[in-house]
Design goal:
By secondary structure, the chain is an all-alpha fold. It contains 15 helices and 2 strands.
Length: 427
């Protein structure tokens, strides 16, 4: 075990955050470049772009719960999460590198670009889903419940958000193709190296809300109703967030007053907007969200952030007619984004059987995947058919307002009530 892991200090939390950072970076590349490439390089219609984005979430419906369940039970290559982090990272790197070559792949295979794009997006999301669950589960595996868990996930978002900012800087300054090539190397490096350095526990605790009162006590049932409430609240968050991610290019192209309405100009505005979003997203978690949650509670802090995000989306709807206004309001949206990708994992992980963390992480991911399916399969048709593309942020603002209302009624996590260990699976 590395000395920084034994000391459990900030350097270890940085190292622990890198695999999730790598998967987040791959997702940033996909968000920044995929819709832009499909609409500007291959001239796919808006609804066809939605179909491509539909492929990825379909991979996540089964992949994350299945990978989580398997990684809870197996042990090989010196870990239960390590193999999946390495495999997912390598596959994600290859698929990111394939994005600029969809046309060439189509010519080689004789397939239409739309089907090639769906195949690449499906494989990329499958790789991200294979890797993302273990990268989050390992944080829960090696950090203590309560404040330690919150510290792990806020550090995860701060480091991941920093590199997300770097991704959009590279995309805005050098273009999406340079972003893709640099991102391929980073995705592979940040997955493989930390996975080999972090020592995983040989046993997993069954503590948390699903545990009994000590080894001899009866086990309590998981508070299913409360977890379902969290699931639905998080789902409405992602319904609004994913609508923005997939269709912001349509809003910018048809609803904003642009000095440069060309494809490159739209791509640059998207990159700067997401750059602003991620600057706020990486600055807030450790500096603001962690101390705020220690003072007023994880759930209340998150609910306030989501309400602020809803206000930011409403602001874009009414006032985001210029790039400058869009960038300013994306900073407001970034407050909710910072919380969305950090605090819900800490809230959820303190409520479940620790020995089945991978499975519950996978199930919780459905609150992200199902909204993605709705956005790509249903909302995409409305956006494509609507003469006024303001509908993008109408949907986003309403979804986040509903989410905020639900989060305010969740209540804070109960204190951990016990601690048992489960033997490591045999080799």
């Amino acid at each position: 075990m590395l000395s920084i892991q034994k000391n459990n200090g900030s350097p270890f939390y940085v190292l622990l955050s890198l695999p999730a950072t790598a998967m987040g970076f791959a997702l940033c590349i996909q968000i920044s470049a995929l819709s832009w490439i499909l609409s500007t390089q291959y001239h796919l219609a808006i609804h066809e772009v939605g179909y491509v984005w539909l492929a990825g979430p379909l991979a996540g419906v089964l992949a994350q719960p299945l990978v989580g369940l398997i990684s809870d039970k197996v042990w090989f290559w010196g870990g239960r999460r390590r193999p999946f982090i390495i495999i997912g990272g390598l596959l994600a790197g290859v698929m990111v590198l394939a994005l600029p070559y969809l046309g060439a792949i189509g010519k080689f295979t004789g397939l239409p670009v739309l089907w090639v794009a769906i195949g690449v997006a499906l494989t990329l999301d499958l790789a991200i889903n294979v890797g993302f669950n273990p990268t989050r589960s390992i944080i829960a595996d090696v950090t203590p419940e309560g404040s330690g868990r919150a510290r792990g996930f806020t550090w995860m978002q701060s480091i991941s958000g920093f590199f997300g900012v770097l991704a959009y800087v590279v995309g805005a300054v050098f273009g999406n193709f340079v972003l893709i090539y640099c991102g391929t190397a980073l995705v592979v490096l940040f997955n493989v190296v930390p996975a080999l350095l972090i020592t995983e526990p040989a046993t997993l605790s069954s503590g948390g809300a699903d545990a009994g009162a000590g080894d001899a006590g009866p086990r309590k049932r998981t508070p299913t109703g409360r977890l379902l409430h969290i699931f639905v609240a998080h789902g409405f968050t992602w319904l609004g967030v994913q609508t923005m991610f997939v269709f912001i290019f349509a809003y910018i192209k048809y609803s904003m007053s642009l000095p440069d309405s060309g494809d490159e100009g739209i791509g640059r505005i998207i990159n700067i907007a997401f750059l602003v979003l991620n600057v706020v997203g990486f600055v807030l978690p450790v500096l603001v969200l962690q101390p705020a949650s220690a003072r007023i509670g994880l759930v209340r802090t998150h609910a306030i952030c989501i309400a602020t995000m809803a206000a930011g989306y409403a602001g874009i709807l009414f006032f985001g007619r210029t790039p400058a206004a869009l960038y300013l309001l994306m900073a407001v949206v970034g407050i909710g984004w910072a919380s969305t990708v950090s605090l819900p994992f800490a809230i959820m992980s303190d409520n479940v059987d620790q020995s089945r963390m991978g499975l519950f992480m996978g199930i919780f991911n459905l609150s992200v995947v199902i909204p993605q399916l709705v956005v790509s399969g249903v909302i995409g048709k409305f956006v494509g058919a609507a003469p006024d593309k303001n509908i993008v942020f109408v949907i986003a603002a309403i979804s986040l307002a509903i989410s905020a209302g639900l989060w305010f009624f969740v209540g804070e996590n109960p204190a951990p009530s016990g601690n048992r260990t489960v033997p490591r699976a045999s080799h």
